[in-house]
Amino acid sequence: MAYMDHAATTPMLSEAIEAYVAAARDVGNASSLHAPGRRARRTVEESRERIAAALGARPSEVIFTGSGTESDNLAVKGIHWARRDRAAGRNRVIASAVEHHAVLDSVRWLEEHEGADVTWLEVDAQGRVPVEALRSALDGAGDQVTVVTAMWANNEVGTLQPVAALAALAAEAGVPYHTDAVQAVGQVPVDFAASGAAALSISGHKLGGPTGVGALLLGRDVPCTPLLHGGGQERDVRSGTLDVPAIAAFAIAVEAAVKTQEETAGRLSALRDDLVSRVRQAVPDVVYNGDPADRLPGNAHLSFPGCEGDALLLLLDAQDIACSTGSACSAGVAQPSHVLLAMGADDDRARSSLRFTLGHTSTGADVDALVAALPGAVERARRAAQRS
Amino acid sequence: MSGGVDSAVAAARAADAGHDVTGVHLALARNPQTYRSGARGCCTLEDARDARRAADVIGIPFYVWDLADRFHEDVVDDFVAEYAAGRTPNPCLRCNEKIKFAAVLDRAVALGFDAVVTGHHARLGADGLLRRSVDLAKDQSYVLAVLRRDQLDRSIFPLGDSTKAQVRAEAAERGLAVAEKPDSHDICFIADGDTRRFLAERLGEAPGDIVDARTGAVLGAHSGAYAYTVGQRRGLALREPAPDGRPRYVLSITPVSNTVTVGSAEMLDVSEVAADRPVWTGGPEPDGPIECEVQLRAHGEVVPATVEVAGGRMLASLRRPARGVAAGQALVAYRPDPAGDVVLGSATIGTRD
Ligand SMILES: Cc1ncc(COP(=O)(O)O)c(C=O)c1O
């Protein structure tokens, strides 16, 4: 099996599994006052400190959540609500057009159900938000904006955003800047303080930790209205009994991913470049989407003219190669990716794309398997597309 | 895999037989919410989920293929156009002809698959002949008879030797949760089952006369001839009863004059049926009259007949008159056979002239 879908989820690191199992054998609610509770709390707080240290944040800035999706929802809705309610006439969200659905649909929801005004930041052909686009969106209107959100690295095409420049512009205008760094941690250097962001989302299962745990790094002075009300466990911004084993494993994984980031990036980008050049040889008219250099090291996003991504995926799956069309499904029917469309691709190119994402278990043998299977699959997929 | 019990068991049997099987669910609705909801349908999100779940239990890959546009053009638009032309189409038959054993099959073959397996109740054995299912009540050979030889050659119907009850029992044994799912009946793309309203929304009101076949007298009015089918008795709202007090039936629909013609039950009787675009799969096209049986609508009665080809049409002389023969339906010729009646050929019944 050649697993080339690490952006969907990546195998847990063995040290994370061990941390998980060790904590899962213990009893204790981190909010309890007795000894088992204290033990659990200690695990949680050590994990918080680990994550903070690895990502350039203060421990008090780490808010544990149940997923990257929850972190994104909390940041976008929470900051919007809190700042909208603090100043009359402040009701605008600025968001990039290439966000993950966790951000995209949160913004759309605010627009449709909460009457928010939205400015979508268009991207260039590589999928990058031009810094000028944010400058003009904020120009003279900063006091009407509740939050700016633009991701660190795009989950489909892998393009990195100019986070520091965007954050600086937002800061100048006095607007909190949120960035979804779910795909970035462990792949590229991520430092919360240095980035200038007010809020940053991460997720466990994209970096070798468990699924169902995430965190929002949230500056101490950034107002944020909770999504979940209850025990107030996380700074009163997020309620719910903390998942101690998941948090322990998450922290170990973040620490390991960050520690090995440089080496991982070097290894994966070499492997990825090899993949792209060999696919180019096999299928000369392939289109390499996104920024060829300034992108996630493990990401190769390719369009195969005349093919449907769906058909290619089926054919590669039948040969034990796991990849993704990278786009969201609606009732199982692939929709053309909003990211590709925002980059100016037409429907056909958007539908003809596949995403291959490499990770810590990827090897040259995976690339060999792909390169062996691809030409036949492309030929068949082209034939199928001509018939329909 | 529709999400129903038949296609789930068919897929499981094909996999057991050693085929390399991939489950495919067809997304046929442009907007899945607009089609029939609940357990009755075949195109809802819930059905897609049921199909996926069955594929997972069987242990085969599963994909959704979006054929909504093709389905709309070839089946739904055709359905409306046929009614507008005064005929009574069978959309399941059209879906088999244009979608399942055409668009889907073509795509599958291009992708490297050898055949399409479906959960239709019909037999297709090594001799290549299409036969009725052992379960005559569930037999679907009528809606498959439209398939050409090249289509049948790439089709597998694993359920033809089983009754529906056996299929359900097997589904339960295999742990397929769809075992108890009720059969889908009506037309999948008409959400509330109200065909008349569905057509009215698409064809608009077109008031016209209901006339007496014998006298030509205007007996009533209709707001759209497409709302009537040959043999229909209810809902005519005629101004006065027939002089003999006996019920009257729709005999024919004439789009040109936008009239619905009614008459007595006897006048519904038809002894000669002409049908267009014949397809012969039970052997070569006959070069003279043959004695066989014909079926003139889905689940309709079977009538002995003499069938021949003339001027490219299939002509059937019925040994006893049939009623409710509607243009647009299929005329299917069968050869009685103890091993399952064999489909000889099929053609589309033309307008009565
Ligand atoms: C950029 C990005 N944001 C958010 C998420 C959602 O994270 P989670 O799966 O933890 O909810 C993902 C995962 O697909 C992602 O790639």
UniProtKB/TrEMBL annotation, chain A:
Q: Does the keyword Iron-sulfur apply?
A: yes
Q: What is this protein called?
A: Cysteine desulfurase family protein
Which organism's genome codes for this protein? Phytohabitans maris
The cross-references to InterPro entries, in alphabetical order and at most eight, read: Aminotrans_V_dom, Cysteine_dSase, PyrdxlP-dep_Trfase, PyrdxlP-dep_Trfase_major, PyrdxlP-dep_Trfase_small
Q: Gene3D superfamilies of this UniProt entry?
A: 1.10.260.50, Aspartate Aminotransferase, domain 1, Type I PLP-dependent aspartate aminotransferase-like (Major domain)
As for family, the record states: Belongs to the class-V pyridoxal-phosphate-dependent aminotransferase family. NifS/IscS subfamily.
Record-annotated Aminotransferase class V domain positions: 3-370
List UniProt keywords, sorted A-Z.
Iron, Iron-sulfur, Metal-binding, Pyridoxal phosphate, Transferase
Cofactor field: pyridoxal 5'-phosphate
> What domain of life does the native source organism fall in?
Bacteria
Q: Which reaction does it catalyse?
A: (sulfur carrier)-H + L-cysteine = (sulfur carrier)-SH + L-alanine
The answer to whether UniProt assigns keyword Nucleus to this entry is: no
* Pfam families listed in its UniProt record: Aminotran_5 (PF00266)
